[in-house]
């Protein structure tokens, strides 16, 4: 038996199961699921409108989300990676993750996420032409989070075998985020934080909040039978005078 | 080739040859390479990384000049400790040189671009981020770079 806490929190289970791919992505897939889900949702909802709207701008030939990055975008990141705008980035915020007791044996982890949708630099005419898409993107994100998934990302068939609906990929299950709750906290439109004194990168910055709960892996906890010894006495009560109520002897 | 272009080419050829002289005497100890990393076609950091490396060289395969910036220069330009300049780099001419796309390769989305320095202070090679490529001079270009990742120690 391996040495472990035999507990899970969110989609992470200890002991860690054998790896099937390089890196730690499969240990906590929430970030990549969020990125792919929001990207699929935005492209599905805005795709046709987008194509017509940007036909005379430098964004011609792109999708509403052309590239996506599982990391908070800053100038240093963008100097290292070739990305075409519009760019969607998702990463855990640098604000502290909060931990509290959800119940007597469960912890709750509350995480903030930064989601940036960056249009890139645009001259004023093109900016006015397309900047309202920032508001639409935020609303698509909000509604997608509210329903826990999107048809364009993952589907599930109802018990009748016919009806197909979106899979709740934010909730529990294998290959899902295993969030206990998720919500869009706030969003704002403006210049991307990384841009500094350079060209203005127009952006919609969204803050999400998710919670994940811990749970004990009942099957993995060492069985009572592994408690070895003879003449062991277990009592309730205290040495300070409380009467012993239950005594068990081996 | 017009007269002015021919003159420019001639100046670059002269510079290309002269800039190799310190290297010929062992005075350019740093190898400089542009490292392009190809990841999966849909995301960076997924799958495995395939590297393509292209050296930046003056004539006869000599190393270019590398200068680590002192505290004052870094403070003035807002650069971090370890920042360096590479250059003068001779732009491409009829006998060689470095094309713009040798430094900033035409790569697809999700590819990473870095510069690797290998030399006395970075014996195993260190990856640098390209902060700026100065191309406003016709006969020399300059790269401004900042360290981002130390390569693994030798076996």
How is this fold's topology laid out?
The complex is a heterodimer of chains A (250) and B (155).
Chain A: E1 7-9, E2 12-13, H1 30-53, E3 67-69, H2 75-80, E4 87-92, E5 98-103, E6 106-120, H3 124-130, H4 133-147, E7 155-157, E8 164-166, E9 181-191, E10 202-216, E11 233-235, E12 247-249
Parallel strand pairs in A: 3-4
Antiparallel strand pairs in A: 1-2, 1-10, 4-6, 5-6, 6-10, 7-8, 9-10, 11-12
Chain B: H1 3-18, H2 21-24, E1 31-38, E2 50-55, E3 66-68, H3 71-77, E4 84-89, H4 100-103, E5 112-119, E6 122-134, E7 141-150
Antiparallel strand pairs in B: 1-2, 1-5, 3-4, 4-7, 5-6, 6-7
General description of the model:
The complex is a heterodimer of chains A (250) and B (155). Chain A is built from four helices and twelve strands. Chain A is an alpha+beta fold. The longest helix of chain A has 24 residues. The longest helix of chain B has 16 residues. Chain B contains four helices and seven strands. Helices cover 20% and strands 35% of the residues of chain B. Chain B has a seven-stranded antiparallel beta sheet with strand order 2-1-5-6-7-4-3, with no helix packed on it. Classes of the chains: A alpha+beta (250), B alpha+beta (155). At the A-B interface, strand 3 and helix 2 of A face strand 5 and strand 6 of B.
